[in-house]
């Protein structure tokens, strides 16, 4: 992984953080207003309910304020925020009941007989990709994400929902890029199977 | 993934790399191999395109804004914290 240095990192938030760290504490709200929806939606994907997600957002921003003076400008603020949000989320989840953690094996997602006999692509491949999804399909996808074991869910949400790069996700989760790729692929295959099942049974 | 037209191992090897292919994280030679294979192997093409669509649909799930009530509550909590522990 190529380490990014302070000289190469450019982030629109650095000036604001400098200002807060130089005594303008009230400007912290500008950061909160800018980012509060991000950890909230991350929390909703990770725990699936409003109360836990709001608690997670509150704890995340309390920690951000607490540790902002230690921010070293070596990574984008957004990445640092997600590192804190991820740790907060994992701590909270350990106190509650969620989808049990298990390993996903690659073999369980190999194509089934229907796919092996396929002569044309299934219809759902043609759903327009430039629109936001309707509520029903969004619910199906969110439920499927919540069914993922946590370590795969974290990677999928960071990569495919929050659109961090492989390297950024690796930094946020303290994993290797290779590990991120393996988990992401299995998580996507898991989600693909769920969607396949949904569209096959769709009335 | 056993079907007549292609070697089973080749299909499985491709299946393992589909996410990296979608993310443009493979070298050109491997990309070309996968593209060529998928053009001639319907099961593999189906896997590739359904996986690609899975990623797209996941990205397009609507985000929800925090409620106004929570936003106000969050500011109150942070306000207390900031007043008690101003950054100097």
Give a description of the structure.
The complex is a heterodimer of chains A (203) and B (88). Chain A is mainly α and 203 residues long. In chain A, helix 7 crosses helix 10, helix 8 packs across helix 10 and helix 9 packs across helix 10. Chain A contains 10 helices and no strands. In chain A, 62% of the residues lie in helices and 0% in strands. Chain A folds into 2 domains: 81 residues, RNA polymerase sigma factor, region 2, helix turn helix motif (Rna Polymerase Sigma Factor, Chain: A, Orthogonal Bundle), CATH 1.10.1740.10; 96 residues, Winged helix-like DNA-binding domain superfamily/Winged helix DNA-binding domain (Arc Repressor Mutant, subunit A, Orthogonal Bundle). Chain B is mainly α and 88 residues long. Chain B has a domain of 55 residues. Chain B has 5 helices and no strands. The longest helix of chain B has 18 residues. Chain B is elongated. The N terminus of chain B is likely disordered. At the A-B interface, helix 2, helix 3, helix 4, helix 7 and helix 8 of A face helix 1, helix 2, helix 4 and helix 5 of B.
Number of domains of chain A: 2
Helix-and-strand structural type of chain B: mainly alpha
Over all CA atoms, what is the radius of gyration of chain A?
19 Å
Please give the count of helices of chain B: 5
The total count of strands of chain A amounts to 0
What low-confidence regions of chain A span 5 or more consecutive residues with pLDDT below 50? none
Q: What characteristic shape of chain B results from the CA principal axes?
A: elongated
The rounded distance between the terminal residues' Cα atoms of chain A is 47 Å
- Please describe the biggest sheet of chain B, giving its number of strands, its sense, and whether it closes into a barrel: none
Distance between the ends of chain B: 63 Å
Percent helix of chain B, as a range, is: over 70%
Return Rg of chain B in Å. Answer: 24 Å
Structural class of the helix and strand makeup of chain A?
mainly alpha
CATH superfamily of the largest domain in chain A: Winged helix-like DNA-binding domain superfamily/Winged helix DNA-binding domain
Largest interface: A-B, 59 and 47 residues
Assembly state here?
Answer: heterodimer
Work out the helix count of chain A: 10
CATH class placement of the largest domain in chain A: Mainly Alpha
User: Strand percentage of chain B, roughly?
Assistant: under 5%
């Amino acid at each position: 992984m190529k380490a990014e240095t302070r000289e190469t990192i450019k982030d629109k938030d650095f000036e604001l953080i400098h200002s807060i760290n130089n005594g303008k504490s009230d400007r912290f709200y500008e950061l909160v207003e800018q980012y509060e929806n991000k950890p909230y939606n991350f929390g909703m994907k990770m725990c699936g309910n409003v109360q836990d997600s709001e608690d997670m957002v509150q704890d995340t921003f309390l920690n951000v304020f607490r540790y902002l003076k230690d921010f070293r400008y070596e990574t984008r603020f957004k990445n640092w925020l997600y590192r804190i949000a991820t740790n907060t989320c994992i701590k909270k989840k350990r106190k509650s009941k969620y989808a049990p953690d298990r390993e996903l094996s690659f073999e369980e997602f190999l194509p089934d007989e229907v796919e092996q006999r396929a002569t044309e692509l299934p219809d759902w491949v043609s759903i327009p990709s430039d629109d936001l999804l309707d509520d029903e399909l969004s619910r199906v996808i969110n439920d499927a994400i919540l069914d993922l074991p946590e370590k795969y869910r974290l990677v999928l949400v960071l990569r495919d929902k929050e659109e961090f790069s492989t390297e950024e996700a690796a930094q946020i989760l303290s994993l290797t890029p290779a590990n991120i790729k393996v988990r992401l692929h299995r998580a996507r295959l898991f989600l693909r199977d769920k969607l396949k099942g949904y569209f096959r049974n769709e009335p | 993934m056993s079907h007549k037209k292609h070697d089973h191992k080749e299909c499985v090897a491709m299946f393992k790399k589909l996410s990296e292919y979608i993310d443009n994280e493979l070298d050109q030679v491997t990309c070309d191999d996968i593209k060529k294979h998928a053009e001639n192997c319907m099961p593999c093409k189906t896997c590739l395109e359904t996986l690609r669509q899975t990623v797209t649909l996941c990205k397009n799930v609507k985000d929800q804004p925090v409620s106004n009530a929570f936003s106000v509550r969050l500011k109150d909590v942070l306000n207390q914290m900031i007043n008690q522990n101003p950054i100097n």
